[in-house]
Amino acid sequence: MDALNPAMAPAFARHPGSSAALAERLLNFVLFITVLTSAIAFIEPSPHDVLIFVLLLTCVAARVPFDRKLTPLLLPTVLWLVGGAMSVIQVGDDAKALQYFGTSVYLGIACIMFACLFSGGNLVRLTIMRRAYILAAVIATVGGYIGFFHLLPFFDLFLFNGRASGTFKDPNVYGPFLIYPLLLLMVGFLTRGVTLLGLATMAFLAGGLFLSFSRGAWFHFGLSSVIAIAVLYLASPDPRMRTRIVVFGLVAALAVALIVAALMAIPLVHDVFLIRAKAIQPYDVGPGGRFSLQELALTAILEHPNGMGPDQFGNIYGGQQHNVYMEYFLVYGWLGGATYLTMILLTFMIGLRSMLLATPWQSFLIAAYAAFVGEAVESMIIDTDHWRHFFLIVGLVWGLSVASINWRRRLVSEFNAGAGAMTPCLG
Question: Could you say which of 278, 292, 293, 383 would form a disulfide bridge with 321 (CB–CB 3.0 to 4.6 Å)?
């Protein structure tokens, strides 16, 4: 597990020369601000939306390269957008439809850009991203507590139907946003040790996640946590480390239970929990419920190979089907839906192939992959189509997977070269 130590810098990600130092520092600064502002999502356009393009310009200035091994991510992303463009033509006079497609374009660009940014295994950038994301999560969670407990006069900005939404419009987006930083902290405890500040931050974020009362986010966090701990267990050759991982997993589960119990002692929390804890909610069943709309969506997908365009299914049937994979078949047609699903499956496979490789950034990849799998599963019961943090996580999985593949090839090459040098000449 020594390879999990981020203090180890990869030889192929050395610091840039003096001529590029200014561009690199500017890139790191803009990366920090861009990730930090990803928590501000209750206004449109958000600062994050603008900063993505500023970050893109700084990437060009810093000459961030495109690794050819990212092509399997680039091609389905481009085809997904081509399918979207073909579908949006049908409703081209709808300003909201054009805005929807424009958001897809910028998120597709952001995903590729983040993959390029991290494909070199640059630990400085990874550390900057980690700090910015955790701080963004803390800011969002402060808003969640303010909203749920009515702590300030403008508390309603951070509240949605009695549930904490933080600095997001929807608690179902706010909750999942907190999961990757929670996993970063959890994996950090196991690979670098426990700190008092880290424990306090994790407890604070876990409480904020609970107050979102998003059943999907709760399930997502549970699944992703199990995946992260299981991968860490498999990746460790040290029996003592494996014992530590198992003990930590049990202690973490107990700690989460205690946090929930403490919050449940508050009458307001208890009342909302009793409503949200039901397996079936009123909007799930009935003629206009989630399940019946999903049945109608399947029929609509077969009837519209070129898609219906953004919002058209909801306008016709009076609601959304709450399944992102159906969503993209409905909105962007068979081409857009199939290529988006392909992108998800390819991300699953490349991350699965790479996360067990012992590299200096393995902990970042394990946390990103666990968050990705949890959110990909959650996407079957909710529309995650334009969740900004999801495209960051996909980019991270691809970038760090490519970095891991390059790292392994370099080690094999050095080993072979060393073995060749030691072989006696038989001439």
Answer: 293
